[in-house]
Each structure stands twice: as C-alpha cells, then as structure tokens.
Specification:
Number of domains: 1
Strand order of the largest sheet: 1-9-6-11-4-3-2
Order of helices and strands: EHEEHEEEEEEEEEE
CATH architecture: Sandwich
CATH topology: Jelly Rolls
Structural class: mainly beta
Radius of gyration: 20 Å
Strand content: 25-35%
C-alpha cells in the first residue's frame, strides 16, 4: 500500500460490523413475517421505489419469535460488552420491523436515532445480493470543506474508501452502531429481498452516576 519501507500504518478508531448466522429452523418465523400487513413507504413521505414497511414495528414481541429474539439479544450483548466495552446491566430490544425491496428498489442513506445499536436479519436474500452499504462521514460541521481530487480506485482502498458494501448470507444477522450511516442498494435480483430490522438500547439504567450522566428509566415510568 505504501512505498516507504520504514513507515507503518495504524488503524485509528475502526468501526466493527458484527455478523453471525442463525442456525435454528425459522420456518414458523418466516411464515409469521411473510403474513404481516405491509404499507408502501411512499405513505410515510418517501419517494416511490423505496419498498414496503410492516405496519407492525414491534414484530419480535410475538411469541413465535422468542428463540430468535433471545439469540439476537445475545448478539447485541456480545457487541456491547466485548466490542464497545460498555458497562451496563442489561440490553433491551426496542422496535423491530420488516422491510421488503422488490427488484430495483433501494433505500436512502440514513442512521437510527434514539437507540444505541442497530441490527438487520436477512431471512430472505438471494446469493451474492449486496444488500447494504455503509458510508464514512467525511464532512465537517460549520467548517469549509476541502476536497482533493481522488484517484479512480479510491473506493477500493481501506483508508480512502467512503462506501463499504456487505453481502449477507441467508439467515445472517448483522450488528453495528446506530450512528453509522448506511443505505440499501438497489435489489438487482429478480426476487424480493426481505429483511428484519432491529434496534437495541441499554435498559433500566443508562450512563454513569458519578459523571452526572445517568438515566434511570424507572424514574420516568
């Protein structure tokens, strides 16, 4: 990558994308999800072509999803404890929703507010379907932005790329920080792409009392 034989390159503040594959039978879960009423995203103010969203955005509350949701919570805890090194009592799932992208449909770049971790469960994807793209934030707030011209292959190199695509396998579950900007590339297959989105946050008590940053949810119930 570099030509100076005496130089070293260090990774500064890398962001982890966690991926794990669910090995249990999900036939009942798929039947439940595929029967869910959907609404076109245009009804929520999106432009046409962004696909459909389930009317129910707490899908994992259904008992048929109990084993799956427990496993997802283990994955979130693994990320929170062993990657982020958070000191907390318990993680909890918040909203969980189904998205469907027909051939040609995509979803714009976005983040997930009011949560800490985001996850996507790909229970109905086609082989080699690049189903999600992550973006590096390169701008500065309230500052003049200087933008050098880049070489054509800049998006193929670790430190210069501004987009990173990920191709999940069937029943893959990915976890990433909710602040990480991401979007859904167009579905280039001839079949629908179905995925279950999930958010997770620290429950009961968030933050540290000693640093005057604690939130006890029970105080506001």
């Amino acid at each position: 990558m570099i030509t100076n034989p005496n130089a070293e390159v260090f990774d500064l503040f890398p962001t982890a994308l966690y991926a794990s594959n669910y090995k249990e039978n999900i036939t009942d879960v798929k039947n439940y999800l595929n029967a869910e009423p959907m609404r076109n995203r245009n009804a929520s103010g999106y432009a046409d072509g962004f696909g459909e969203l389930s009317e129910n955005t707490y899908l994992l509350d259904n008992p048929v999803c109990k084993s799956l949701s427990d496993w997802m919570l283990q994955c979130f805890n693994d990320y929170a404890t062993n990657i982020m090194r958070w000191d907390y009592q318990e993680m909890g799932l918040t909203q969980s929703w189904l998205t469907v992208k027909m051939p040609g449909q995509s979803h714009m770049r976005h983040t997930h507010p009011n949560t800490l971790l985001a996850g996507v469960f790909y229970f109905d994807v086609q082989p080699e379907d690049t189903a999600i793209c992550f973006f590096k934030e390169v701008g500065q707030t309230n500052r003049v932005r200087i933008e050098p011209k880049q070489l054509q292959d800049f998006n193929s190199h670790t430190y210069s790329r501004e987009e990173q695509y990920f191709t999940p396998k069937q029943n893959d579950f990915i976890v990433f920080p909710s602040y990480l900007s991401h979007g859904v590339p167009p579905n280039k297959t001839d079949k629908p792409r179905r995925a279950l989105g999930v958010n997770a946050i620290i429950s009961k008590t968030l933050g540290d009392r000693g640093s005057i940053a604690e939130i006890q949810y029970s105080r506001y119930a």
